[in-house]
Design a protein that fits this description.
Length: 100
């Protein structure tokens, strides 16, 4: 039971890391479009987001591949959620001009 709880916590932690990473990426792209120095903005954002995620994976994984896998699963799930939530209104899954 203890191991299942640890895996569930790793899944939730991976989701949190995913929300931080992909939410931060979304924020960076929106902010970087109007920034005076967009390259600096994107580089700083990348370094901060990667540092947080890599440090988080290191702490959550704690040398156990099952916890790392659960954390990665949560990270990927968060990616899909952030993609769905940040999609512009009226945007379809197919781009105009492409065959169905």
């Amino acid at each position: 039971m203890n191991e299942c709880f640890q895996l569930a916590l790793a899944l939730v932690a991976g989701g949190g890391l995913g929300f931080i990473f992909f939410g931060g990426l979304w924020y960076t792209v929106r902010r970087g479009l109007t920034a005076r120095q967009p390259a600096l903005w994107f580089l700083a954002s990348l370094l901060v987001r990667m540092s947080l995620v890599l440090g988080g994976f290191y702490l959550v994984g704690h040398s156990d591949w099952r916890r790392l896998a659960a954390c990665l699963a949560g990270f990927v799930i968060a990616r899909f959620i952030v993609l769905r939530q940040t999609r512009p209104a009226g945007a379809s899954t197919q781009e105009a001009g492409h065959a169905p």
